[in-house]
Design goal:
The protein has five helices and four strands, in the order βαβαβαβαα. It has 125 residues and is α/β, with parallel strands linked by helices. It has a four-stranded parallel β-sheet, with helices on both faces. Helix 4 runs antiparallel to helix 5.
Length: 125
C-alpha cells in the first residue's frame, strides 16, 4: 500500500511530518502540496501515481469541492486508487496502521470512525 496526501498549500507536508513524528519515518507515505511550486499539481500527482507499481494507492485530499479533489476524482478509473476527502489525521493513521488492502465497506467504516474524532469540546465540558 502507498498513501498520498494531496492538499492545497503546505498542509500535506505538515500532515506527513506529523505522521512520521508519531509513527516513525515512512517510505509509503507521500505528500503533494498543490499550488506552492511552479510545476503543475496534476502533472506532479500523475507522475507520482505512475511511479507506483503493483500497489493499491490511498489518496487523501482536503476539500470535497476543491480543485485538488476534483483532479484526483478524474483518476478513479485506475482501480488501484481509493480516494478519501475531508481528511483528518486519525483517518490517515488508521489506514496506515491497517496496512492492508481494504474493501469499500472497511474504508467507509474507517471514515465513520474518524468522524467520531471531530468534537466541539465546549459541549462536553
Amino acid at each position: 500500500m502507498k498513501y498520498i496526501i494531496a492538499t492545497h498549500g503546505n498542509m500535506a507536508s505538515g500532515i506527513k511530518n506529523t505522521i512520521e513524528m508519531l509513527l516513525g519515518k515512512r517510505q509509503d507515505v507521500y505528500a503533494v502540496d498543490a499550488y506552492v511550486e511552479d510545476q503543475e499539481f496534476s502533472e506532479t500527482l500523475q507522475n507520482m501515481v505512475n511511479s507506483i507499481e503493483d500497489s493499491y494507492i490511498y489518496i487523501f485530499t482536503d476539500i470535497v469541492s476543491g480543485s485538488v479533489n476534483q483532479t484526483v476524482s478524474h483518476m478513479l478509473n485506475d482501480c488501484r486508487i481509493h480516494l478519501i476527502t475531508g481528511i483528518n489525521l486519525p483517518v490517515i493513521i488508521e489506514c496506515i496502521l491497517r496496512n492492508k488492502e481494504m474493501s469499500d465497506e472497511e474504508i467507509m467504516a474507517v471514515v465513520e470512525e474518524a468522524r467520531q474524532h471531530l468534537i466541539y469540546m465546549n459541549s462536553v465540558c
